[in-house]
Amino acid sequence: MKQQEYSAQEKKNAGFWSGVRQALPIVLGYIPVGFAYGVLAQKSGLGLFNGVAMSVIVFAGSAQLIGAGLFGAAASPFTLIFTTFVVNLRHLLMSAALAPKLKGWRKWQIALFGYELTDETFALHSMRMAKRAPPKIETFAVNITAQSSWVAGSLIGYIAGGQIADVRPVGLDFALPAMFIALLVPQVVKPVYLMMAILAAGLSVTLYLLDFSQSHVIIATMVAATVGVGVEQWMTKPSS
Amino acid sequence: MDDKTVFLTICGMGAVTYLPRLLPMLLLSDRRLSPWIARWLSFVPATVLAALLAPGLLCRDGELTLELNNFFLLAAIPTFFVAWRFKSFFGTVAAGMGLVALGRYFF
Predict the structure, then answer these.
(1) How many A×B Cβ pairs under 8 Å?
(2) 8 Å CB contact of B51 and A221
């Protein structure tokens, strides 16, 4: 009996550390991007507590960078909340895409898991969960590691903010695009996914340039996914 | 804005971020999705990441920038290669940031 308990505990530990390991690439991206956010938060006049609280409470890269900018420009609370809502609405699609993988989870577990759903954790989980159901402890370890590094990066950036004029010289500002590339490539497992990724990229740029700069991502994604289903249907139709 | 109003605003930002993250998975996790919807959702990872990435590489200050001084676009090409060839997430992020830093240092 005691032996079994011990091995269950051991299994849990192994699952936890495996999740931490899997999150390391996200950590590599989140520390510099969090740092850049921290610098911006300091420069826009947010206090240390509020600057770091945003990383704990909101935990969303682009929305926080925009948010810090808006706080700096003395935007109203309504503008800040509404902009954040629009920028983060894309998570609806990611949450729906992961839903089938969470069959049998308890509600409170889903509530905890959803809190840390970001572009990056979403991409990683959709790969991890594609073929099998990984242990929950591992899944939560991924999320906790990712957010901890985000909060740590923000804090360091805030403290360093007084000394730093610009985060560009060291390539920190490319951390986010590099992370998207690293996450995107392994998702393209079928030619039709490649075609639709290119379509989504083109649509997103077009909409962005046309000043839909808050909703370009969600619109481009929805259109490309819809076209994708159509193309897939058309390709698999038996030729008569 | 005083610190308390800022904090409350941040809480509001957190709430409107959390709900779209939570509600679909909470409502759909125990339902059987129609095969059509499941297929539609299978396109989301690749398309949403491409849609997030592209404007950052191709646009600056609301304009298309396809010139050679766009380091992000130039660095993206070898970064894509590293991601595809070595399948290393960590290596891809490190290579991308290193390339941009090098490009700025030398040019």
Answers:
(1) 288
(2) yes
The secondary structure element, H or E, covering residue B70 is: none
Which positions ≥6 away from A169 have C-beta within 8 Å? B101, B104, B105
Given an 8 Å threshold on Cβ–Cβ distance, is B30 in contact with A103? Answer: yes
Contact yes or no for A115 and B64 at CB 8 A: no
Cβ of residue A114 closer than 8 Å to a chain B Cβ: yes
pTM for the full predicted model: 0.84
Please state the three-class secondary structure of A137-149 as a single string.
HHHHHHHHHHHHH
Q: Which residue positions in chain B have pLDDT lower than 50? A: none
Q: What is the ipTM of this complex?
A: 0.90
Chain A, residues 15-74, CB within 8 A of chain B, namely 24-25, 28-29, 32, 46-47, 49-50, 53-54, 57-60, 63, 67, 71, 74
Question: pLDDT tens digits for B22-45?
Answer: 999 999 998 888 889 989 999 999
The span from the CA of A88 to the CA of A111, in Å, is 17
Per DSSP, the three-state class of A123 is helix
Contacts of B59 in chain A (CB under 8 A): 205, 208-209
The shortest C-alpha distance from B46 to chain A (Å) reads 6
Average pLDDT, chain A: 90
Q: Among A23-27, A96-100, A174-178, B81-85, which is the least confidently predicted range? A: A174-178
3-class DSSP string for A190-226: CHHHHHHHHHHHHHHHHHHHCCCCCCHHHHHHHHHHH
pLDDT, tens digit, 9 for 90 and up, residues A39-51: 989 988 999 999 9
